[in-house]
Amino acid sequence: MTDKTPVTVLTGYLGAGKTTLLNRILTGDHGKRYAVIVNEFGEIGIDNDLVVGADEDVFEMNNGCVCCTVRGDLIRVVQGLMKRQRPGKPAFDAIIVETTGLADPGPVAQTFFVDDDVREKTVLDSVTALVDAKHVMARLDDSKEAREQVAFADQIILNKTDLVNADELATVEARLRGLNPLAPIIRAERADVPLDKILNRHGFDLGRINEVRPDFLNPPHGAEGHVHDADCGHDHGHDPHDHDHAHDHDHDHDHGPRGHAHEDDIKGIALSLDRPVNGQLFTQWLDQLLATQGQNILRAKGIIDVAGEDKRLVFQAVHMILEGDLQKPWGEAERRWSRAVFIGRDLDEAALRKGFEACAA
Amino acid sequence: MTQLSFDAQPTAALFDASGAVFALGDGSIRFEDGTVVEAHDGAVLCAVRHPSGQGVITGGDDGKLVWSRADEVVPLADAKGRWIDAVAASPESGLLAWSSGKVATVLDPSDAAFKRAFTHERTVSGLAFDPKGRRLVASTYGGVALWYARIAEQQPAPMKWAGSHTGVAVSPDGAFVITTMQDNQLHGWRLKDQRNLRMGGYPAKIRSMAFLSSGKLLATAGAAGVVLWPFVGSDGPMGKEASEIGFEEGAVVVHVAAAVKQGRVAAGLADGRVWWADPAGQGLAFVKAERGAPICALAMSDDGKRLAWGDEDGQAGIAEL
Fold first, then answer.
1. CA distances (Å), B41 to each of A38, B6, B29, B38, in order?
2. Best label site of A12, A31, B211, B316, fewest CB within 10 Å?
């Protein structure tokens, strides 16, 4: 038996630099064997037997889960690729799935959790979004798919940073973080990211979810987009809600019509609790939340301090598909606290926070 | 018993007029006499016995459809780099069919000029001929389409059922079309009135099915034993219970094989074991009792006397039952 083949899903709209990146992966001198599943033949200008065309074939599962849509073409292609497996050797070092700019990453990711054959042979490594610094703001304004791709990602490659100035770059990064506070942003020019940074992220591996830091990517106090919360530890001197959502405060730079990160319909919501959580209450709350709002929740991750349990409860979710397990024990000197991030569309932050805090033991 | 070891995973095991044949993931075809034919530049994705019984027809991820015999390799079609996903053949009509993406194509090996192309709304996942080889059934998302194999211009007769159908078979009496589904169930239609048959309750994905006992039984994989559906009378399995033989807690049957005119069924397990049984008799006969990599290819000869299998590590065997 051989290890499961890691799969990286690469999203990004036309012109973001996907083809450049894929060509690098296919032609690079890395001694690895990668299979690339593309939506359109011909965009990749090189002849390679490991480039496979797939017709985007999205369908709903009959399992009663209303948002359980998967990509039938990916099931077929992965099954076919696995036939190349040789005794004791994986067929490929990795599989890279390219999606079109209009693709919803949800069904692509869900395919790797729902189908038996695919789950047996492969493991989803990450959903990586490629965006270009020059045009991403316009795409995020006019394309729901572009916002979802950023929000869904485990990591964001911010390409063509050489085409914008430092202020523009800061604005772009602030907006990306508003949409997705969990994904690290990797800056690149001409898609020149080291492959080892893109691949083997273990984005869906519960054992690797070591840190979910709601405050980690919160911009510093005073910066645009900073969110005051209980951990701020200082007196703001004004109503935090006013600060969060009103736009009458003084801007010293030109936003234009864009740049209002907090106006995006999709955002990441970070929750934390310094008291232990009642495991049963929390599980019920999470199940109920995903059952009722799973269609709007793109991704969720969390590390929970369950009362009476020495190990941390780690979970991650893609829409309604939830995986959770007790992972390594809390350290002696470690700060035991619960934190979770939900990334989704039209989420009611106050209700989420209230529900989460009500799980306290 | 013959033991074989390949440097690639078998996509399919078959029996042709010469004996057992293995079609492998490295694109080669291995005949029982030791002949190796390099049929594809890539992996074999699907395989079927030639309608004449001589050699095998394989579709590859190189986009080629190839007829291989021990002494000759004949290219039959070229999908220009697109994968060939499914292939079917009818000894009765002599026709063969293959699919790539949404298009199923019918060929007549005795008439090089004959070609019919049938386009579907969704990707074709499986193909089967009716018992006379006159109609072709293609499974897709949302149901199946029935085509008259020789007619050029036609509208297919669709039979719909929500969900993703992953493979298809026609009962030997031609009365029923059965599909395997993504959601661990079978679906069936009685052709004369298109009544639906829902055949569920499987714990795992159903990767293979086979008719036996002159079509009175349908054996399927996807459970801890071999599931047998009765196809007796005009109602087939409607309103009847399936039975299960060789049930073993924790085991998963991933492949079944049978010869339609015989009363024997064979099972290949996820843990590498292989057994056969006579559903009317008692007990299982293990052909391969030691565990190993999952069985990925299994075939029974037409006379029900021989069995060929292969596992994901390239280990294979041929046994007399």
1. 20, 17, 12, 8
2. A31
